[in-house]
């Protein structure tokens, strides 16, 4: 008989406390939960020092980093390193479409991930050409993520990535995306 198993009074109380806390946290992040997994992950990418710096760069410079990260993902995909490729494809889009918390201590305090302090950034640059590139780039990264997820037999996540590609607003057919 384990203390946390739920077959004793303390275990039952602890399990109820976990359920209550989980319910409270889910109520605070309803919008966050609607975002695709790879957009949710951008919250954590923003904690990396290089991403903090890159997100502040002018759009043209961000674009260079985005393309480099996507190409690194392509190399990893060709090598069959699906998980590493996923990380690169997620990072490749995180400079132009990402979320962050306005609460700098969100990880350390009791707030956690809370819609009230999350901001979704959709940096489309200054020109229509920038905006078209951003939409296409996001769609390509999402399709590449879908291909990785398919290789890993994570079909639900692959479908969500395909849905995100379609929702990106890119004005091309799927066949046009495969370069």
From TrEMBL:
Key word Magnesium present: no
EC nos: 5.2.1.8
Gene3D superfamilies in the record: Tetratricopeptide repeat domain
GO molecular function: peptidyl-prolyl cis-trans isomerase activity
Alphabetic keyword roster: Isomerase, Rotamase
Top-level lineage group: Eukaryota
Signal peptide (residue range): none
Enzymatic reactions: [protein]-peptidylproline (omega=180) = [protein]-peptidylproline (omega=0)
Entry annotated with the keyword Acetylation: no
Alphabetical list of PANTHER family matching this protein: PEPTIDYLPROLYL ISOMERASE
Protein name, as recorded: peptidylprolyl isomerase
Organism: Cladocopium goreaui
């Amino acid at each position: 008989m384990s203390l946390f198993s739920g077959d004793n009074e303390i275990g039952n109380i602890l399990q109820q406390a976990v359920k209550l806390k989980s319910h409270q946290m889910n109520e605070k992040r309803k919008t966050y939960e609607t975002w695709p997994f790879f957009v949710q992950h951008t919250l954590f990418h923003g904690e990396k020092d290089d991403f903090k710096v890159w997100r502040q760069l002018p759009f043209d410079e961000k674009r260079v980093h985005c393309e480099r990260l996507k190409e690194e993902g392509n190399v990893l995909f060709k090598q069959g390193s699906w998980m590493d490729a996923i990380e690169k494809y997620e990072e490749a889009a995180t400079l132009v479409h990402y979320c962050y918390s306005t609460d700098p201590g969100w990880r350390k305090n009791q707030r956690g991930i809370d819609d009230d302090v999350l901001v979704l950034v959709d940096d489309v640059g200054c020109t229509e050409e920038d905006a078209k590139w951003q939409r296409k780039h996001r769609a390509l990264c999402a399709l590449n993520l879908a291909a990785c997820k398919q290789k890993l037999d994570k079909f639900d996540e692959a479908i969500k990535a395909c849905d995100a590609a379609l929702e990106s607003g890119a004005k091309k057919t799927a066949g046009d995306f495969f370069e």
